[in-house]
C-alpha cells in the first residue's frame, strides 16, 4: 500500500466533510417544492379563524338533573352564543331519560327560540329521551339560544278526569349541550367580543412573575368575569424551560421540516428549548398560548416579539419564498405585538388568529366597570380609552327593580309563573348601605276560580313572604323585610305567582290569566348591619375597600391569582372601587379602609383563627378552643376581623399548598369559614356556636338597641305604675267600705 502524503490526507478529509455537509443539507433544508408547501401552510393558518364552542348545562350552573313531573311541566334554558354573529354546524345534544309508571298519554315537545323542533310520544315504562337536533345558524341579537321543554302527562281522555300525576317523570341531564362554530374574524368590536367569550375564560399574563400593575389588572378582570357567570383561569405565556403537552398539538406536515415545528411533533411532555418553539405554538394556535383576555405590558410584547423573530429566522432560512405569507400571518393573526397599548386602553386584537380583549396594565378597574351590564353595550368599537366607568348608584335610598334588570311586564299564568331579577350587592352597597326592605307592586287579573292567586317572594331561594292577591286588575303592594343573612354578592329576586285552576274542568277548559310586576317596585336601602359576621362585612367590601396580598404572590401569579379572584368574588369585593396593595415585608399592615387580606398579618387584630403550618386553631368565646387540629394541607381559613375602626376579612393558607377553589361558593352566617376545593367545608359563628341569637338582631344600631332597652324599661315602669294604682284604688275602696259600716 502506498503511503498517503499529508496533502492527500487533508484533501480526503475535506471531501468527506463536504459529503457529510451535503447530506445534512439534504435532510435539513427543504426543496423548492416544500418551500411552496410551507408558504401554503402559513396561508392556511392565516385563513383559519373558526372558533369552536361547546356549552354544557353544568357549565352554566345546572349541575344537577332537571326534573319535570307535573301534568304540564315546562322549562326554558338559555344557552349563550355571540350576539348578532352567525353560527355554523350548530347542534343541540339533548340528554334525558324518562320514567312512565302512570301510563296513558305522555309527550315531550322541544322548541328552539320558541319554534317547536321535536314532538314525541312515549309508551314504554322507561327509556332514553335523548335527541340530537340541528340548530339554525341565524344571528341572535339576544345572545342566547332558548331551549324549551314541555313534558305533558294526561291520565284521562275526559277533561274532568284528574290530571295530577307524579309517576311520569322526565330527567334532563346536566350533560345536555350546545355545540357550534363561528368565524372569529366576524368579531369586530369589544361588546361583541365579550358576549363571545367561552364559559371558561383564559386571562393571559407575561409570565409566572409579573408586576404589581399587571397583577392588579388581572384580579379585577377575573372578578368581573366571575360576576358575569364565567370562570376565570389565569395562564402565563410559555417561556424557555417550561413543559408543554405535545399530545394536544397538531402540526401540519409541510411545517415539520422547520425545527421549531418539528420539535412539537410527538406525544407526552416536552421542555421548550428555543424561543422559536414559542413562536411555533403561537402560529399553530396551540392550547398553551390560547387566551381570550390578556393584560398586555412591555414584557408581554417583548416575549411575543422575541418568539416571532426567532421563528422568522428559521422560516427564512428554510423557505425564503414563505416570507410574504409569514408577514401576512403576523399582520392578521398576531397584531398584538405591533405597538404598545395606550394608557387606560382596552383594545380588540388577535392572538394566534383568535379575538383577544387586550387590557393595559393601568386599565383593570375601568375595564371591569366598562364590561358591567350597565355600560358594556356602548363598547361598539375595536379600541377605547377609559377614563372612568362607574355605576350611578350614588347614595340613593331606593333602587327601582327595573334598574336591576327586572322587566316590568305582564305574562299569563295558568297554574304557576315566575318573574325574576338579578343584581350584584356591589351595585347597591357602594356607600355601605344594603337592601333591607322590598316594596313590590303587582297586579293580577281575576280568574275563573274564586280562590285568589298567591304571590310568593324569594331572595336567593329564601322565602321573604307571601300574600293572597285581590286579583281585581288594580295595583297591590307587597312590603317585606330583607334579613341580612339572605344577601349574597350576587343575588336573584324571584316572584312566584300561583293560581288555582277552575274547579269544574268538565264544563270549561282552564285558561291562563295575566299578572304583572309594575315598574314602581323598588328596593329600600339602609346602613349595613354591624360588621360582626360575613353578612355585615361583605357590604362594606362592595364600596371603597382594599385587597391586600404579600408581594411574594406576584412571583407565582397564575396560582395565587386564582385564589385571589375566587375570594374577592365570594366576599363581594368591588373590582371597580377597591384599591390594591402588595405588602413588601413581614410587618403587620394597618388598613385605612375595609379590607380583604390574603396571607398578610394585620396590625392589632385579635385572632379568631390561628394557622401554624398545617395546624388550624379556632378560638371560642372563652379560653377554650372550638377546634385544634394538625395535619391539614391545601385548605384555607377565612375569618371576620376588625383593625381599629375598619372591619375586614383575613385569609390564611393551611399547609404548604393553596386551596384549589374549583367551585363557586357562598358565605352566609358566621364569622369563620374553612375553605377547600369544594368551597365552604365548615362555617361557624364563634360568638354563638349553637345559633341561639335571634336572626336580624345585629341589624339594629347601638341607638336602636338603647331605645329598645329604654322602651322596654318604660313599658315595665308603666305596668308597675298601673299595678300600684289598682292596688291603691282597692285600698281606698276598702277604707270607704269600713267607714260606711262604722
TrEMBL record:
Claim: Transmembrane helix is one of the keywords in the record: yes
Keywords: Membrane, Transmembrane, Transmembrane helix
Bilayer-spanning residue ranges: 706-727
Protein name as annotated: Cyclic di-GMP-binding protein
